[in-house]
Fold:
Amino acid sequence: MSRPTRAELDVSALRHNLARVREVATGRRVWAVVKANAYGHGLVRVAQALAETDGFAVASIDEALELRESGVRKPILLLAGFFCGAEVPLIAEHDLEVVVHHPWQVEVLERCTLPSPIRVWMKLDSGMHRIGFPMGEMHNYFGRLAQSLSVAQPVNLMTHLANADDRSDTYTQQQLERFFGENLPESAALSIANSGGILGWSQTHADWVRPGIMLYGVSPFVDSIGADEGLRPVMTLRTRLSAVNSVPRGEVVGYGGRWRCPEDMLVGVAAIGYGDGYPRHLRNGTPVLLNGRLVPLVGRVSMDMVTLDLRGQDNAKPGDEVVLWGKGLPVEEIARHADTIPYELVTRVTPRVRFELV
Ligand SMILES: *Cc1c(COP(=O)(O)O)cnc(C)c1O
Structure:
């Protein structure tokens, strides 16, 4: 038998979460964000499950071409734009839409000749200060894109929210004021909202919403879990117990002896580790679900294994089901224990983990 470590993907949950986007952002069009291998869930399989979306948004042309090769005919948007001029003919050839966020990209578009013009989303910086044209330069560059023969008309407008993961943060409102304060061209379609915007600020919905993390059933907010937002978790990271051992009081467990047994106790070993994307810096006490009951992680996470405190679990035996996150144990909670966000945990599951659709 092979290693029992696997990531179960609930396809009906994916569909449910997309329906939840439509319910909250009624009548808006949806770019399903599937960058970074669909947040670690598998680009093509997620795209196939999300056939009801209006389009897909990715971070690179490689992802876009993989989608086209798998038969996706819907609109595909390159969220980070093109990284060099050589990508532009491919963008036209494969009928991709592209973010333009910098003057050098406008110059590339002005210089090139294409068989057909490409659809462009001009990215404006309303306060995130990562990529985008300063609001005050919008009219100048919008005018140039509107004149360019390489650009399909009308040019669309986009911005991105920096603090939408916190409903009580007033910066989102400030970003909206800067964005809408600029006398935007009426012809342009507008797109602002990520998952936080969709769920937290209806004023951000505009024409196209861009949900990422919520499609995967995970809350974008620091203080809630997916279920609180009407979402269902898509990924459940599972393994099995491979050993149950008695360890005497006073003995230490694992690398560095980070757990000392306070009494004679059972210690379980489960086949998951940082080689699978389960973070090494998770501490003693991180919850793990064993046969549907919460047990604490004890000792260092190693590459292929973790050790569990099985006090009170006298019936536990090798082969028993262990859930690291997902159904029954929200990934948001594990992310808090790992001092990170759930986005990082799901995105970093490694290729040796088997994915199974359920
Ligand atoms: C990743 C990304 C999104 C999706 O963000 P979530 O918080 O996962 O919903 C939306 N827009 C842009 C520009 C992005 O890069």
User: Anything to note?
Assistant: Residues 33, 35, 79, 160, 194-196, 210-214, 220 surround pyridoxal-5'-phosphate (CB under 6 Å). The chain has a mean pLDDT of 97. The first strand starts at residue 6 and ends at 9. Residues 11-24 form the longest helix (14 residues).
